[in-house]
UniProtKB/TrEMBL annotation:
SMART domains on file: CBD_IV, Fn3_like
Record has Iron as a keyword: no
GO BP terms, alphabetized: arabinan catabolic process; xylan catabolic process
Protein name from the UniProt record: Exo-alpha-(1->6)-L-arabinopyranosidase
Signal sequence region: 1-30
Length: 972
């Protein structure tokens, strides 16, 4: 790791003062100023510009929307263009597969090409943007996919930090252009740190013991920063160990230690306001913004485009002495450093200034999107059904996702969309039979006899109840899409638009479920009398906006439907006008093949601010698959979603299963390439697919080591393992051989088709002082082989790659041990293995005679990790009486005569020292009467009743009273 660049200090302040005085004395045109001279170093240009700014101008640059400074010829600048899998929210642009889909290709070279294309398109949009430079991109997301129920699972890459680091580095390199001094764009890694739940995301705290922080969460962020493939991080909403990440000192002390280049760190949207808001961490915004700047934040994303509150808060913090001008200079220098490197002040916009809008959705990018969608799909199962024969032109494509392409919150605007049905039809050169397989129903009020009707035009109309004596007309018919967890969406047969709530009425005017508040969701609650109630299930409704669940019913004299309490809800009969299953069965009977496309909707099945409650396929979709398979045994199921799915018994019953993410504009073409063998499936899962949610602990449990999370520690039998993916050909692995710098293995394509194999290298440490992963990915390489050809694959592995975090000495250590080295096609499909005896270190017995941080325990129960102070440090807090910490293998210390502890708490409490177990022999007890505040610490000491064991070491347990906080302790 490289040393952090110095913060502006006394020398720089004097230099800036001199530059400013010279600038005032010597008139110059803006074009002639040194900060615009590309021949000067970046640091000199930044120092020159910083010295020319007034304090008010510098403060103005701390907000996301940085204003123009006309007197220096500086244009406006804005941080934060979304670019997760294409440029988003700026207009039509190439929409690549979701990030989880891109990652599933396990192809860094492809990731870099996609990143480069996205960077080009960001530059293309830049030429026409009126509100300043939008080249600070908020991508990629490197949060680890520790829990597949996370609502934002589609935004991340993998549950593994090594794979995530490799792919984010590749994508970031493409975005930057590969030259850190001349940036195409300036990518920002999201979201630092341990952000993997949406449930109460601004107030929940992710407990990260040091090993988890170092070996897991930080390990995903470090590689791209170290490789100059990212120019900063975004702090996340959540807390880590009781402290909001907006004021996490690691932003400065850890993240900036990974590089010697300046980084531009930003907050997440509205996060600064959370500090005095729902987090209640500081009483005022001025105190919160000051703490954020001191922790390493450079740019505040708050209050939308209005910088006023931020400017006022920072100005107040300066006036109150909470900040010095040097603190502002530090942050502004980081901002200006990135702006200089982007070429903003260079003639013509620098190296990439000539890229124009012609690159947006170019033919080359369309081709790349198709390649990425094909490479990222994973063949989960194939019993000989795939690939389909092109001569078999009589193919039916059915299912709720058969003829649609869905986008997620961070997708760009689709320039066009090739659906699965479109792609298959184009591949075969003929029309295909398509059916969505969803029921079309009419809803009749049992009390009035009126039908729920919608508008016929493109803009629809407010739903109302109308009499229809001769039966339900088209305006009274709705297609019901089941997305699981009881949630359905209703699409009007009258105009093909979805019904949504617009805060006053229900209108059929939406092209698909969408929006921050997804207002197109309903639950049909079956009643004992056979009727149903139509409950409104839009996000942010019953729990947030109303005190009780709300339902639909007539609310006006014209029968217009509105929200009512359950007691006033209308009882409807659900008349099935057309059976979706029957329609699909009729479509597939007698066909050469049936393709069923099922899965999720990105706006419904969990997303930002909403985690998933289950991972199963929707019941109606599962029933559809079974019915189609019974009608046509040549059934292929495509599961199109953003996360692992439990799939139930379908995994056993269906002959062929292919997974894809929501893969963007070329979805259908890519799937057709795969189904008919023009592309050979080569994607691999980047997450464990579990059999049931019961395999998972609480989504708020971040200790992957103790709770046996991810493939590294999971001891159960997964549905599909990490790294799994099949091919239309087969591969043979030779012996795994040690070579300088790593291992090599010969891989042979033993099938009849060309194909790609992802060779994965895992290790396992046989013996250790500490609990070790069952397997851990250390290297991988994607190789392309023609039939019968062999390639020697060399995989880098050094002793340093085997290191883990030693909590006894707070350092990385490679232990002397025997390591299993495993090469294969997944975490469980090991094809070749070797053993490696590594001479490293032996971790010595713990020495508790010096102050030991309580967070460096070996095991625990009934405790939480909390903030030692609002500035830095982690302490341990007991959640209940009898909570304990284990410190294993303590050095024999017969001379130890006292236990000293630094404690805090609002009530009296004790810390007991016990030997061997939490209920073992009591050696001593320290007591506190309470310190009045969880942040007010005192040092307490007690004599030990007996000597510590003289030989063999001992396991020492500290047993704490509820509410007591312990930061450090020692035995002397």
């Amino acid at each position: 790791m490289r040393g952090k660049r110095r913060r502006p200090g006394t020398t720089l302040v004097l230099t800036l003062a001199l530059v400013a005085s010279l600038a005032a004395a010597v008139p110059a045109t803006a074009a002639d100023l040194p900060f615009r001279d590309p021949s000067l170093s970046v640091d000199r240009r930044v120092d020159d510009l910083l010295g020319r700014l007034t304090l008010d101008e510098k403060i103005s640059l701390l907000h996301q929307h940085q204003p123009a400074i006309p007197r220096l010829g500086i244009e406006a600048f804005r941080t934060g263009t979304e670019a997760l899998h294409g440029v988003a929210w700026l207009g039509e642009a190439t929409v690549f597969p979701q990030a989880i889909g891109l990652a599933s290709a396990w192809d860094p070279e492809l990731m870099e090409r996609v990143g480069s294309a996205v960077g080009d398109e960001a530059r293309g949009f830049q030429q026409t943007r009126p509100d300043g430079w939008g080249l600070n991109l908020w991508a990629p997301v490197v949060n680890l996919l520790r829990d597949p129920r996370w609502g934002r699972n589609e935004e991340g890459y993998s549950e593994d930090p090594y794979l995530t680091g490799a792919l984010s580095t590749a994508y970031g390199t493409g975005l930057t252009g590969g030259d850190p001094d001349h940036l195409k764009t300036a990518p920002t890694l999201k979201h630092y740190l341990a952000n993997n739940n949406e449930y109460h995301r601004t107030t929940t705290s992710s407990d990260l013991r040091p090993r988890v922080a170092k070996e897991y969460d930080e390990a995903a962020f470090g590689p791209a920063i170290e490789a100059d493939a990212a120019t900063g991080v975004m702090s996340s909403y959540n807390l880590v160990n009781g402290r909001p990440n907006t004021v996490n000192p690691d932003l400065d002390e850890v993240v900036r230690s990974w590089t010697d280049r300046e980084l531009l760190n930003v907050t997440d949207a509205f996060a600064p306001g959370n500090l005095p808001g729902d987090q209640g961490y500081f009483p005022t915004l001025a105190e919160g913004d000051a703490a954020a700047l001191k922790a390493g934040i450079d740019s505040f994303t708050d209050n939308g485009a209005d910088p006023g509150p931020t400017v006022t808060a920072v100005t107040s913090a300066l006036d109150r002495g909470l900040l010095a001008e040097s603190d502002v200079d530090t942050a502004v220098s980081h901002i200006l450093n990135v702006r200089v490197r982007l070429g903003e002040f260079d003639p013509g916009g620098g190296r990439y200034g000539s890229i124009d809008a012609s690159v947006i959705d170019s033919p080359a990018h369309r081709k790349l999107a198709r390649t990425a969608a094909a490479e990222g799909a994973v063949l989960l199962k194939n019993s000989g059904t795939l690939p389909l024969r092109k001569a078999a032109k009589d193919v039916a494509v059915v299912g709720p996702l058969a003829d649609t392409v869905s986008t997620d919150w961070y997708s760009g605007t689709l320039p066009y969309a090739v659906t699965p049905a479109d792609g298959i039809a184009a591949k075969l050169g003929t029309e295909v039979t398509a059916a969505e397989g969803v029921d079309r129903i009419a809803l009749r009020n049992t009390a009035t006899g009126g039908y729920v009707t919608a508008g016929a035009g493109a803009s629809g109309a407010a739903l109302r109840e109308s009499a229809a004596p001769s039966g339900p007309p088209a305006q009274a018919q709705f297609d019901v899409f089941d997305w699981g967890s009881g949630v359905v969406t209703l699409r009007s047969a009258a105009n093909g638009r979805y019904v949504g709530y617009n805060w006053s009425a229900f209108v059929n005017d939406q092209p698909e479920p969408n929006g921050w508040f997804v207002q197109q969701q309903f639950t049909m609650e079956e009643q004992p009398d056979g009727t149903c109630l139509l409950r409104y299930a839009g996000y942010e409704t019953a729990e947030s906006w109303w005190s009780n669940p709300v339902y639909l019913g007539p609310t006006g004299p014209d029968g217009t439907l509105g929200l009512v309490a359950k007691e006033q809800a209308a009882h409807y009969t659900k008349d099935v006008v057309r059976s979706g299953v029957a329609e699909a069965v009729a479509a597939v009977k007698g066909r050469d093949a049936a393709v069923v496309v099922v899965g999720s909707h990105p706006a419904v099945n969990g997303r930002e601010a909403h985690d998933r409650t289950d991972m199963s396929l929707a019941p109606a979709q599962e029933a559809l698959v079974r019915a189609v398979h019974r009608a046509n045994p040549r059934t292929v199921v495509i599961v199109e979603n953003s996360y692992p799915t439990t799939l139930g018994a379908l995994q056993k019953e269906i002959p062929a299963l292919l997974w894809t993410s929501h893969a963007g504009q070329e979805t259908g073409n890519a799937l057709a390439d795969l189904l008919f063998g023009d592309a050979n499936p080569s994607g691999r899962l980047t997450q464990t697919w579990y059999r049931s949610e019961s395999d998972l602990p609480s989504i708020l449990d971040y200790d992957i080591i103790k709770s046996d999370r991810t493939y590294q520690y999971f001891r159960g039998r997964p549905l599909y393992p990490f790294g799994h993916g099949l091919s239309y050909t087969t591969f043979r692995y030779g012996a795994l051989k040690k070579v300088p710098g790593g291992y090599e293995v010969r891989v042979t394509n033993t099938g009849g088709r060309a194909g790609d194999e992802v060779v994965q290298l895992y290790t396992h440490q046989r013996s250790s002082r500490d609990k070790q992963p069952l397997k851990q990915l250390k290297a991988f390489e994607r190789v392309s082989l023609e039939p019968g050809r062999t390639k020697t694959v060399r995989l880098r592995l050094t002793p340093a790659d085997l290191a883990h975090w030693d909590v006894t000495r707070s350092k990385w250590v490679t232990e002397t041990a025997t390591y299993d080295v495993l090469a294969g096609a997944s975490a469980t499909d090991v094809r070749s293995r070797a053993t490696w005896r590594v001479e490293g270190e032996t971790i010595p017995p713990r020495d508790l005679s010096a102050a030991t941080r309580a967070e460096n325990f070996d095991d625990y129960a009934g405790t939480r990790l909390v903030d030692e102070s609002r500035v830095r440090g982690t302490a341990v807090e007991a959640s209940a009486d009898g909570a304990w910490l284990k410190f294993a293998g303590v050095r024999p210390a017969t001379a130890a005569g006292a236990l000293t502890a630094r404690v805090a708490g609002t009530a009296p409490g004790t810390v007991e020292l016990r030997l061997g177990s939490p209920t073992g022999p009591l050696a001593g007890t320290v007591r506190t009467e309470g310190t009045g505040s969880p942040y007010a610490y005192e040092t307490v000491t007690a004599d030990l009743a007996g000597a510590m064991p003289a030989a063999g070491g001992a396991d020492v347990y500290l047993v704490l009273s509820k509410g007591l906080r312990l930061s450090t302790f020692s035995l002397r």
